[in-house]
Every structure is written in structure tokens, then in C-alpha cells.
């Protein structure tokens, strides 16, 4: 059993690039699946809904445990089975909404999954009405739905914000590029990122940033690869990742990293599974995951873990890493940091560093699994952490934002 010392820091000098790579994990627990939704809560990744190889729509939900590499069927979505829905998570809750319940027949409902109770609650419907093949992401206490298909086969470019605290929807600034569906999205800090997709005539490889604070869109560096729709995407730290997808020439398994700090794309280790689209992507801690999907001829249920080169150290690679998360993040007054997958001890401590690696405060962790972080002494900005065991193995890294 490892003793864990939790340290917030950038410590770029301790991080050594040793190359990225993929590891195949246990196959998805349900039937083969295309156009499903995925999200993560703590150390559990979830995949649900979608269409199986028998062309039947699903409303099931499966959870994958990062520590045990096992799938468990959870409570099914208590609503009409669907394909092309959206999914995201906020804190300990997951969300699934919209989608198609038959060919070209959309739905506008929106549901909340409670992880601790394995139960569902219906929330306010998506106000514009029926929508499928849309894109979803979350920032702090807010969830977002953009793009998609509206009757009849019309591409959308609107963006809607859902407030978890009030269960209300608010329309935000329309997307700055072409309307589309089958795009990708992820968030980093207070920014949402969307790109790729299809408008019924053309595929895209453009990439855009939405600023939650100013409600404005800014075009970023274009993906330096073929145009595509229906790829998978996720974010880890200040990096976003996009791979797979299809266009009129075929399907792909290339994989790309976007750096928020430099606005540059770098091609990474190729996704090792078959070429595909309509697959699912999400991240857990310092790892990314892609699975399921289709290549028209075959639907898949294989599932892979991606280890970026930015989370290896001069001591050891991160293996069986602890899972840490901060909620809310960004935060104004205080946040809660949770620790899972490792046991802490009386000598564990939480140290918070600024971007120059100066220690700003130290908090005794002890054997607690939840730590309250107050903003006292911290100005607005970004701070970094890594979880370190007593043998100097880095178990987890990440960041928090004070605003």
C-alpha cells in the first residue's frame, strides 16, 4: 500500500516526455455500439444509449471502473431508447439528452444521472425542441448543447447553456462558423472547444473556442489533417485530443493533440483500433479513453486507454494512478478536492503552488478523502497539482482555476 502526498504544482522540470501510447482495456460491457454517449465521474467512465449492430436503439448505461478494468451495467435511462444523443458530467452527476428515437425523428428531453444513488431524474427539456447529432460539454456548474440536426435535416449553429442550480436553459451567442452536426467538443478551464463536423454537404476541420466569461467565439488553429465528422475527443489538463472520424473518402484512426497554451496541433500515436467514427471519448484523471463506434460494415465494442507523454516522470510512469478531482472548478470562494484509488496517511499534505512553482499554502490531508480548499491567499488564476507517493511515483496531476 502506497502512502500518498498530494502536491499542487506545475513542476515542468520534473516531467520528462517519454512518448505517448495506447493500451487496450476490457471490451465495452454492452452490445456493439455506434453513436453512443460517454462521460466520466471520478474514476468511473460511462457509455450508454446509441444503436447496436442489430440496428436497434438502446437506453442502457454501463460504467467502467478504472481501478479494476471491469464494466458494470447501471440503471438504464428511463426514457425512449435513442441514438445520437449528447452526454457530459458535472460533479457527481452525468447528463444525457436529445437524440433520435427513430429515423429522422428527434427528441428534446434531458436527464440527470445520480452516481451515488444509481438513479435518474428528468430535468428541463431542451428549449429549441427536437435535436439529434448535437454536441455537448460542461464548464463548472453549467452544461452546454450546440449544433445538431433539426427537422428536417437542417444543420444548427446555436449554443444553449443549462444551469444545474436552477434547471434553466439560456441561449448564448451563435457559433461563429458554419452550422453543422456530428462535431466534437471538450472544455479546458472556462473555455469550450468545438470543431470538425458536417453540414449535409461538406465536412470540416476548423476548430473554435467559446469563452464562457465573454460569451464570444474565436477561431483557433485548424486541424492539420483531413476534414471529418463524427470523431472522438477529450481533454487532459491544458491539452485537447481529437482522433478517428470519417469523410467521403473513408474512415480514419489518426490522433491529434491541441495545446491550449500555444494554439498548435501535434500528431500523436495512432489510435490502435480499426478505423471508425461515431465512437465515444472521455478522460479520467490523466488518461484518455476511446471506444465503440462503427465503420459502416462493423460496429465495435473495443475500448482503449491513451497515456499522453505529459504525465510521465523521471522516476516512474504513472500506473494505477489515484484519481483526484476538484469541484467546482473554476471556483470563486472554495472548492472540494476528492481523492480516490489510493489510501492517504497521516503524513499526507496538500501544497498549492503558483505558476512559478512557489509554494503558496500547505494543508494537512491526513486520511481524508475530501479536502476543502479556500481561496484565501490565492488571486484569480491557474494553479497546478500532482499526487506523489512516498517512493516519489507521480500518481496524479492536474490544475485548478480561481476566478
Q: What would your notes on this structure say?
A:
The protein has 403 residues and is an all-beta fold. It has 2 domains: 4-11 and 318-402, Sandwich (Immunoglobulin-like); 19-311, Kelch-type beta propeller (Neuraminidase). It is built from no helices and 38 strands. The protein has strands at 4-7, 21-25, 37-41, 44-51, 57-65, 70-73, 86-90, 93-97, 100-102, 105-106, 110-114, 119-123, 135-139, 142-146, 149-150, 154-155, 159-163, 168-172, 184-188, 191-195, 207-211, 216-220, 232-236, 239-243, 246-247, 250-251, 255-259, 264-267, 280-284, 287-291, 303-307, 323-327, 334-340, 349-353, 359-364, 370-374, 381-389, 394-402. The chain starts with a strand and ends with a strand. Mean pLDDT is 88; it is low at 1-18 and 310-320.
**Helicity, as a percent range:** under 10%
Total beta strand runs: 38
Helix/sheet category: mainly beta
Report the sheet with the most strands, covering strand number, pairing sense and barrel closure.
Answer: 5 strands, mixed
CATH architecture of the largest domain: 6 Propeller
Helical stretch count?
0
**Based on CA inertia axes, which overall geometry fits?**
globular
Compute the number of structural domains. 2
Q: What percentage of the residues does DSSP assign to strands (E)? A: over 45%
Average per-residue pLDDT, rounded, comes to: 88
State the CATH topology of the largest domain.
Neuraminidase
Numbering strands along the chain, what is their spatial order in the largest sheet? 35-34-1-37-38
**Poorly predicted ranges (pLDDT <50, ≥5 residues)?**
1-18, 310-320
CATH level-4 homologous superfamily of the largest domain: Kelch-type beta propeller
Distance between the termini: 37 Å
Spatial extent as radius of gyration? 20 Å
CATH class of the largest domain: Mainly Beta
Amino acid at each position: 500500500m502506497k502512502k500518498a502526498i498530494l502536491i499542487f504544482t506545475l513542476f515542468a522540470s520534473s516531467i520528462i516526455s517519454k512518448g505517448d501510447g495506447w493500451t487496450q482495456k476490457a471490451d465495452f460491457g454492452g452490445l456493439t455500439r455506434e453513436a453512443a454517449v460517454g462521460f466520466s465521474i471520478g474514476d468511473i467512465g460511462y457509455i450508454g444509449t446509441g444503436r447496436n449492430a442489430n440496428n436497434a436503439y438502446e437506453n442502457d448505461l454501463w460504467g467502467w471502473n478504472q481501478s479494476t478494468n471491469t464494466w458494470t451495467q447501471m440503471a438504464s435511462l428511463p426514457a425512449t431508447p435513442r441514438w445520437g444523443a449528447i452526454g457530459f458530467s458535472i460533479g457527481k452527476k452525468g447528463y444525457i439528452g436529445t437524440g433520435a428515437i427513430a429515423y429522422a425523428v428527434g427528441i428534446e428531453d434531458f436527464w440527470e444521472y445520480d452516481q451515488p444513488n444509481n438513479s435518474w431524474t428528468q430535468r428541463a427539456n431542451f428549449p429549441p425542441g427536437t435535436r439529434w447529432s448535437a454536441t455537448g460539454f460542461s464548464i463548472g456548474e453549467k452544461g452546454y448543447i450546440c449544433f445538431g440536426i433539426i427537422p428536417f435535416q437542417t444543420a444548427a449553429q446555436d449554443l444553449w447553456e443549462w444551469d444545474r442550480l436552477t434547471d434553466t436553459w439560456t441561449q448564448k451567442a451563435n457559433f461563429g462558423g458554419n452550422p453543422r452536426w456530428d462535431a466534437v467538443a471538450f472544455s479546458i478551464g472556462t473555455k469550450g472547444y468545438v470543431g470538425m463536423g458536417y453540414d449535409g454537404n461538406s465536412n470540416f476541420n476548423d476548430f473554435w473556442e467559446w469563452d464562457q466569461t465573454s460569451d464570444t467565439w474565436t477561431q483557433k488553429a485548424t486541424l492539420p489533417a483531413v476534414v471529418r465528422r463524427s470523431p472522438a475527443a477529450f481533454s487532459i489538463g491544458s491539452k485537447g485530443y481529437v482522433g478517428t472520424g470519417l469523410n467521403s473518402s473513408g474512415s480514419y484512426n489518426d490522433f491529434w493533440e491541441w495545446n491550449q497554451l500555444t494554439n498548435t496541433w501535434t500528431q500523436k500515436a495512432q489510435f490502435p483500433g480499426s478505423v471508425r467514427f461515431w465512437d465515444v471519448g472521455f478522460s479520467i484523471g490523466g488518461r484518455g479513453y476511446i471506444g465503440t463506434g462503427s465503420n459502416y460494415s462493423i460496429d465495435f465494442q473495443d475500448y482503449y486507454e491513451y497515456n499522453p507523454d505529459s504525465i510521465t516522470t523521471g522516476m516512474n510512469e504513472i500506473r494505477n494512478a489515484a484519481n483526484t478531482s476538484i469541484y467546482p472548478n473554476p471556483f470563486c470562494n472554495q472548492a472540494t478536492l476528492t481523492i480516490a484509488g489510493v489510501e492517504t496517511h497521516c503524513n499526507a499534505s496538500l501544497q498549492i503552488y503558483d505558476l512559478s512553482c512557489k509554494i503558496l499554502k500547505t494543508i494537512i490531508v491526513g486520511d481524508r478523502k475530501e479536502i476543502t480548499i479556500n481561496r484565501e491567499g490565492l488571486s484569480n488564476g491557474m494553479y497546478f497539482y500532482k499526487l506523489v507517493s512516498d517512493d516519489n511515483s507521480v500518481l496524479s496531476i492536474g490544475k485548478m482555476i480561481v476566478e
